[in-house]
């Protein structure tokens, strides 16, 4: 499915009926050949936007997966690059692709870092956290950053109701909710639980000064709203 080197439909079904950690362990060998990998267009747009705020010292990729975000950090940071994820399978692929980085297995809701990084990024992971889990995630990132450190991550916006994408994402989220209501362990992955105002409020509550900028190079919806925003959260000095 997706490409000759990607997972089959059967493999995706097995993954979807696993836990988040177990599912990504299973998917890891073929993950980079799926549409789930963060597109280069988003990585490039994020790099361009953050280049106006750098350069930075040490960098952290939160929920790093197979390491798609490492080139972003490498282009912006002068110091050591670290990736953290809780999937052994994904980390194994990341180590193979980027042996010069540091890789840490940990639950990002309890990050084992303190005052160690100048820039933290995350790509495509926020949908794996329920709104009630965001405070712990953001508090851990805040703790991991040095004073004046920056946390940045792109967030897709909700498409207008007149678009096909609106109904596709809504249908996906409803399907996942039905799956999690009747099947254990749950697989948390939602597209419509991270609206920008609520996420900014949680970042502020965690101690950040938070804002959002439109990533105009990624285009706009038919109603004129941006397809993607970059959220910027600065730790106080």
TrEMBL record:
Coiled-coil region list: none
GO biological process: methylation
Entry keyword annotation includes Ribonucleoprotein: no
Keywords: Methyltransferase, Transferase
The Methyltransferase domain, residue ranges: 60-149
GO MF annotations in UniProt: methyltransferase activity
InterPro entries named among the record's database cross-references: Methyltransf_25, SAM-dependent_MTases_sf
Pfam families in UniProt: Methyltransf_25 (PF13649)
Domain of life: Bacteria
The keyword Chaperone is assigned to this record: no
Protein name: Methyltransferase
Organism expressing this protein natively: Asanoa iriomotensis
